[in-house]
TrEMBL record:
Protein name: MFS transporter
Alphabetical list of SUPFAM superfamilies matching this protein: MFS general substrate transporter
One Pfam family per UniProt: MFS_1
Major place of residence: membrane
Keyword Transmembrane in record: yes
Membrane topology: Multi-pass membrane protein
Organism: Psychrobacillus mangrovi
Compartments where found: Cell membrane
Keyword Transmembrane appears in the UniProt entry: yes
Domain of life (superkingdom): Bacteria
Ranges that cross the membrane: 12-40, 46-67, 79-100, 106-127, 148-166, 172-191, 230-252, 264-282, 294-313, 319-339, 360-382, 388-407
C-alpha cells in the first residue's frame, strides 16, 4: 500500500515539476526577451547588450561549486523555494525602481546577476533531486518532460514577448514574471524531495564536512567513475566546439547569406520544434537499452550537421532552397540534441550517488559555463579572420574525432558489457 502511494506521489511530482518548469521558464524567457529589446532600444549599443549576457553567465561560472555543495549538504526543497523567493524579491525590486526612478542599466545588470545566481541554485538542486522525486523506472520520462517544458518556453516566449512588447509597458512584463514565479513556488512547496532519495542521514549535532574538503570529495568521486568521467569530458568538448556552430550559424545566415530576419526566426523555431517532438517521444517510450551508445552516435551525427551548416557557402542554392535547407537542418539538429542529452542525463542520474549529485552536476555546470563563453570569443575572432566554411568543417571533424576516441569500443563495452555478445558491430 505504501509503495502504491509513493508511486502516485511520484506521478504527481512528474506533472507538478513539469508545470512548474513551464511556468518559470516561460516567465524567465519572456522577461529576457523584453529586457534584451529594452537595452538595445535604450542604448543602441551591442556592448551594453553583451554586458547583460556576461552578467548572466559569469556569476554562474564562479558560484556553481557553492551551489553543488549546498545541494548535497542542505535541504534541497528549501534551496529551491528560497531561490524562487529571491527571484521574486529581485524582480519586485526592479519593478519598484522602474515605477519610482525609472529603469537604469545598473539596476538591470544587478538584477541579471541575482537571477543568474538564483536560477543556478534552483537548477543544480532540481537536477540533483530527480531521483528523489520520481521512481527509477521514470527517470527518462522526468528528464524528457523537463526538456519539453524548456522547448515549449523556447518556442512560445519569443512569440508572446514580441506580441506584448509593443502593447504593454515594462512594469507589466515584470509583474507577469513575479506572478509566474509565485505560482512556481506554490507548486514546488507541495513536493516531497525525499520520496525516493537515498541520501545519508545527518546525525543531529554532527559537524558538516568543510566546504573545500566536500568539493574535493565530489571531484574524487567523479574521477573514480570511468564512464561518468568520460561523459563529463565529452560534454565539455561539445560545449566548447558548439561555439563554432552558435557563432557561425547566425554569422553565415545573416551576414553571408543575407537571410531575412523573419525567415531566420523560422529556422530557429524549427530547432525548438525538433527538440519538443523528440522530448515528447522520449517521455512516452521505454528507457533506452544502450544509452551511452545511442548518445555516442547521435553526437557523431551532430558533428556532421555542424559541417553541413557551411554547405550553402560551397554549393549554389536559391534563396528559398537555402531557407528550406536550414529549416530542415535545424529541425533534425534539435532532434539529435535531445537524442544526445536525454540518455546521458539519465545515465548520470543513475550512476551518481545521491550524496554527490549536487557537486558533480555543479562541476559539469562550471566547465560548461566556462567553456561556452571561451568558445564564443575564440570562434568570434576566427570568423573575422578565416573562411566560415573552413572553421565549421574543422570543428565538425574535431567533434567527431573526440567522440570516436573517447567513446571507443573498449569504453562502450565497459558502459554496456551485455552489448559485446549482442551487437558488437554497433560499438
Amino acid at each position: 500500500m505504501e509503495e502504491v502511494l509513493k508511486l502516485k506521489k511520484a506521478t504527481y511530482h512528474l506533472w507538478t515539476f513539469t508545470i512548474s518548469k513551464v511556468i518559470s521558464s516561460f516567465g524567465a524567457q519572456v522577461y529576457t526577451f523584453a529586457i534584451s529589446f529594452y537595452i538595445l532600444q535604450l542604448t543602441g549599443s551591442a556592448s551594453s547588450f553583451a554586458m547583460n549576457l556576461i552578467c548572466g553567465i559569469l556569476p554562474r561560472t564562479l558560484i556553481a561549486p557553492f551551489a553543488g555543495y549546498a545541494a548535497d549538504n542542505y535541504s534541497r526543497k528549501m534551496i529551491v523555494i528560497v531561490s524562487q523567493i529571491a527571484t521574486i524579491i529581485a524582480i519586485g525590486g526592479l519593478l519598484t525602481i522602474s515605477l519610482t526612478l525609472g529603469l537604469s542599466l545598473i539596476a538591470i545588470y544587478a538584477t541579471s546577476v541575482i537571477l543568474s545566481i538564483t536560477s543556478l541554485f534552483s537548477g543544480v538542486t532540481f537536477s540533483s533531486s530527480i531521483t528523489g522525486l520520481v521512481d527509477e523506472a521514470r527517470i527518462q520520462k522526468a528528464m524528457s518532460l523537463n526538456q519539453i517544458s524548456i522547448s515549449f518556453a523556447a518556442i512560445g516566449s519569443p512569440a508572446v514577448g514580441g506580441l506584448l512588447y509593443g502593447t504593454v509597458t515594462m512594469p507589466v512584463f515584470l509583474v507577469m514574471y513575479i506572478v509566474a514565479s509565485v505560482v512556481a513556488v506554490i507548486l514546488e512547496s507541495t513536493m516531497n524531495f525525499k520520496l525516493f532519495a537515498k541520501r545519508k542521514e545527518v546525525v543531529e549535532g554532527e559537524e558538516k564536512e568543510p566546504m573545500l574538503q566536500s568539493m574535493k570529495a565530489g571531484v574524487s568521486f567523479l574521477m573514480k567513475q570511468p564512464i561518468l568521467k568520460i561523459l563529463v569530458i565529452i560534454s565539455l568538448f561539445i560545449n566548447f566546439l558548439f561555439g563554432a556552430f552558435q557563432v557561425g550559424y547566425s554569422f553565415i545566415l545573416i551576414e553571408k547569406l543575407k537571410i531575412n530576419s523573419q525567415h531566420f526566426g523560422f529556422t530557429e523555431g524549427a530547432f525548438a520544434i525538433g527538440m519538443l517532438i523528440m522530448s515528447i517521444y522520449f517521455s512516452a517510450r521505454k528507457e533506452l537499452k544502450y544509452p551511452f551508445l545511442v548518445s555516442k552516435w547521435s553526437i557523431v551525427v551532430m558533428g556532421v550537421f555542424i559541417g553541413c551548416v557551411a554547405l550553402p557557402l560551397l554549393i549554389s542554392m536559391s534563396y528559398v532552397m537555402t531557407v528550406v535547407f536550414y529549416i530542415l537542418l535545424m529541425f533534425v539538429f534539435g532532434v539529435a540534441m535531445v537524442i544526445t542529452n536525454t540518455p546521458i542525463q539519465v545515465m548520470m542520474q543513475k550512476m551518481i550517488e545521491d550524496d554527490y549529485k549536487g557537486r558533480v552536476f555543479s562541476i559539469v555546470e562550471t566547465g560548461a559555463m566556462a567553456l561556452m563563453p571561451l568558445g564564443m570569443v575564440l570562434f568570434g575572432y576566427l570568423y573575422d579572420v578565416l573562411p566560415a566554411e573552413s572553421i565549421l568543417i574543422v570543428s565538425s571533424f574535431l567533434l567527431i574525432l573526440v567522440v570516436l576516441v573517447l567513446a571507443r569500443p573498449s569504453v562502450v563495452r565497459v558502459a554496456h558489457p551485455e552489448l559485446q555478445k549482442a551487437q558488437p558491430e554497433l560499438q
